[in-house]
Amino acid sequence: MSKKLFFPIIAFVLWHVVGMATADEQTQVCLSTNHGNIVLMLDGEKAPKTVENFLRYVQDRHYDGTIFHRVMENFMIQGGGFTMNYKQKPTREPISNEADNGLENTRGTIAMARTSDPHSATAQFFINVVDNGFLDYKASTRGGWGYAVFGRVIKGMDVVDAIRVLPTGSAGPFAENAPKSPVAITTVTLGQCK
User: Fold this and answer.
1) Any idea what DSSP says for residue 109?
2) pLDDT at 128
3) Is residue 65 a contact partner of residue 126, using CB atoms and an 8 Å limit?
4) Distance CA 111, CA 90 (A)
5) Cα–Cα distances in Å, from 25 out to 57, 71, 102, 124?
6) Where is the PPIase cyclophilin-type domain (predicted)?
7) CA distance linking residue 164 with residue 161, whole number of Å
8) Which residues are CB-neighbours of 39 under 8 A, at least 6 positions away?
9) How far is CA 161 from CA 75, 97, 154, 166, in A?
10) What is the DSSP letter of 51?
11) Which run of H or E residues covers position 153?
């Protein structure tokens, strides 16, 4: 094979391999709600376990028919764990906390919700509606782990902002911060919203 043909072939192959790696590391997800669509860009390079976990739930259609059950105007909106009638959905085993990945809980980022156990995140997530630096990783201690950011809103922040200001109160098992009119997550799919 001549050098004139060999190098263009190698360049073509490398271009496609690099392009595929980028597509895998930066995955778009469409979160459709009864208030509009939110497009997320997930960061599989900095949060590989978290993105893999989230995408498994997406592929299993776990999030379809869930709600944003916790809405706090100057904090975040949380969802992915309860149905429209506030029945908690079953989940897989918790994942390791990747909050030490350098990503910060700034406005428009998506992070995993969890209990006081730093490594207890399963399916629930939240979208930061303001900068929440106090949720960032500080140290590998129970109180310092923070909450793992794994992506950001790239389209539909106006939808997030519309949800964040909804009237809230008690509903289901929640004494406060539940939207008085349910915010349905109708479907969550890979790619751009249609």
Assistant:
1) E
2) 99
3) no
4) 19
5) 17, 29, 16, 21
6) 32-190
7) 5
8) 28, 29, 30, 31, 153, 154, 155, 156, 192, 193
9) 11, 27, 13, 9
10) H
11) strand 149-155
- pLDDT for 91 beyond 60: yes
pLDDT-derived band at 2 (thresholds 50, 70, 90) equals low
Tell me how far apart the alpha carbons of residues 21 and 95 are, in angstroms, rounded to a whole number. 23
pLDDT the model gives residue 31: 98
- In the chain, helix, strand, coil percent, each to 5? 25, 35, 40
What is the homologous superfamily of the domain 27-190 according to CATH? Cyclophilin-like (2.40.100.10)
Location of structure tokens 């429209």? 84
- Average pLDDT in the 30-38 region? 98
Whether residue 70 is predicted with pLDDT greater than 60 in this model: the reply is yes
pLDDT in tens, 3-32: 555 554 544 444 443 333 333 557 999 999
Q: Which residues contact 120 (CB under 8 A, 6 or more apart)?
A: 94, 114
